[in-house]
Design brief:
With 135 residues, the chain is mostly helical. The protein has 6 helices and 4 strands. The protein is 57% helix and 7% strand. Helix 1 packs across helix 4 and helix 3 crosses helix 6.
């Protein structure tokens, strides 16, 4: 399994702000860097030799939920959280179902940001909406 590196998530944040607007505070736009360090460690954690988050959807949900809910960056958290989850899925041969309306993805992201969804609910959304990418 390929996990995201801290530098890759920082790059995603900068890229989304450049592409879609917002404020980027140099050098890395952090608001809560410690939360990103926790995420990087936690998403791949094991307990008694078993992954704490065994499913791909669990891990994708972790990336999105933690970046958004913990306000890792000073701007662009919603876009970065979603894009980090998408990148993680892509690196591991999966994607969000192309048949899912973009409005559903937008609404889901807003619900995460508004605190209306828990981590478990975020992970369940990914479980229901990701598919294996066939090359």
């Amino acid at each position: 399994m390929r996990f995201l590196k801290k530098s890759e998530i920082i790059f995603v944040n900068k890229r989304t702000i450049v592409a879609h607007g917002g404020n980027y505070n140099s050098p890395q736009n952090f608001l809560n860097e410690g939360h990103l360090d926790y995420l990087i460690e936690g998403v791949s954690s094991e307990i008694f030799g078993q992954p704490m988050y065994p499913k791909l959807s669990d891990k994708a949900g972790m990336y999105m939920y933690n970046i958004i809910a913990n306000h890792v960056f000073s701007d662009g958290n919603k876009r970065t959280g979603l894009e980090a989850a998408i990148l993680f899925l892509d690196l591991n041969g999966h994607r969000i179902d192309k048949n899912l309306p973009k409005d559903d993805i937008f609404d889901f992201t807003i619900k995460v940001a508004s605190g209306l969804l828990s981590l478990t609910e975020c992970q369940a959304w990914f479980e229901a909406n990701i598919v294996e990418e066939y090359l």
